[in-house]
Amino acid sequence: QSRRQRKWVRIVMAAALRAAAGAARRLSVPAIRNTDGRYPVTMIPGDGVGPELMHAVKEVFQAAEVPVVFEEHHVSEVQNMASDQKLQQLLSSVKDTRVAIKGKMHTPMEYKGEFASFEMKLRKMLDLFANVVHVQSLPGYPTRHVNLDLVVIREQTEGEYSSLEHQSVQGVVECLKIITREKSRRIAKFAFDFATKNGRRKVTAVHKANIMKLGDGLFLQCCREMADLYPNIIHDSIIIDNCCMQLVSNPHQFDVLVMPNLYGNIIDNLAAGLVGGAGVVPGESFSSEYAVYETGARHPFSQAMGRNIANPTAMLLSAANMLRHLNLEFHSNMVAQAVRKVIRQGKVRTYDMGGYSTSAEFTAAVISNLES
Fold it and tell me: For residues 190 and 130, is the Cβ–Cβ distance under 8 A?
């Protein structure tokens, strides 16, 4: 009897958690449109090829007659366009629109009196705790592994990115890694909710608890506790170094992976390389109120700036995901299908995909497939 009662308690609690997560996701969709019937979206071009990729998004949206109007905010720590005033203006815009599309804001390595970059400040001020990267093979573009379909979920408001560093004595630097029960449970719940909503079968927690027994041990414990509330989802765990090896050798064993901040950054980039690189994988970040869409592997690709060679695929697919988030399913499918059709045909490919086409030519091909 007690076993049956515990089972029903787990089922009821799981249903309540999923309902709460659904409510949180609905909050992030703008409640009203502008008076002209278009959805307002904050656009942050960022550094490197970011402005060129945003230009491609605007051209495709215009051709597809997408009912979205962009509020552009140019913020950069390397182009003397960063200040507290600009950051507050950007935050105000995102809080009004509740949806943003963003290029990578380059973080300089030099210490300029403050450890936290503008990108990190933005994540923390908006509480963008969950970063989601869907790593999926693109038909028509051959890679070493075929038919890949896995999701990397990263907690991105604490961990090694806490910006808490100091020099204890000359030549000795301490960098603090912060892991809390509250945020570990929150990202674990998000991962299991994501798996449930999207018909996924397994959630794997990635950790280094054999070495960081308290910090990563707490994260792993929270994932296990949350797994008890989702009896229909398989749960397992893997050490981060073994995870990297397994991803390269046998990535099909993974479904949804959830992990702390730094591990997520590494795995995002490694997994993107499995399906074609930084130019083809979309990403998104969520809080309970806001959604920010960006590329899955965050690279400014500064060496390609102004050369018209950047691959717009990842940003266009992110933009399509954003449209689905806004309940613009028709336009979302139109953009995503046009991008995938261009890749499947194989006639127009940018340099990173082994071709010679320019960014503008790739964008034009996508627009042409929209019209057809």
Answer: yes
Q: How far is CA 43 from the centre of its chain?
A: 16
In the chain, the amino acid numbered 192 is: F
**How many Å apart are CA 145 and CA 362, to the nearest integer?**
25
Residue 293 CB-half CA count within 13 A: 26
pLDDT one-digit tens code per residue, 54-103: 999 999 999 999 999 999 998 876 666 667 788 889 999 999 999 999 99
Residues 234 and 202 sit within 8 Å (Cβ to Cβ) = yes
Q: Average pLDDT in the 98-120 region?
A: 75
**So what's the pLDDT on residue 269?**
94
Phi first, then psi, for residue 207 (nearest 5°) are -155, 180
Phi and psi torsions of 257, nearest 5°: -115, 135
Per-residue pLDDT reduced to its tens digit, 140-180:
999 999 999 999 999 999 998 887 888 889 999 999 999 99
CA distances from 220 to 69, 177, 208, 213, 228 (A): 42, 15, 9, 10, 13
Does the global pTM surpass 0.85?
yes
Furthest C-alpha separation in the chain: 69
CA angle in degrees (0–180, nearest 5) for 37-20-25: 30
The whole-angstrom separation of Cα 103 and Cα 51 is: 7
Dig out the tokens for 282 from the structure.
């979309």
Q: Which two tokens stand for residue 21?
A: 């997560």
Alpha-carbon distance 321 to 336, whole Å?
A: 8
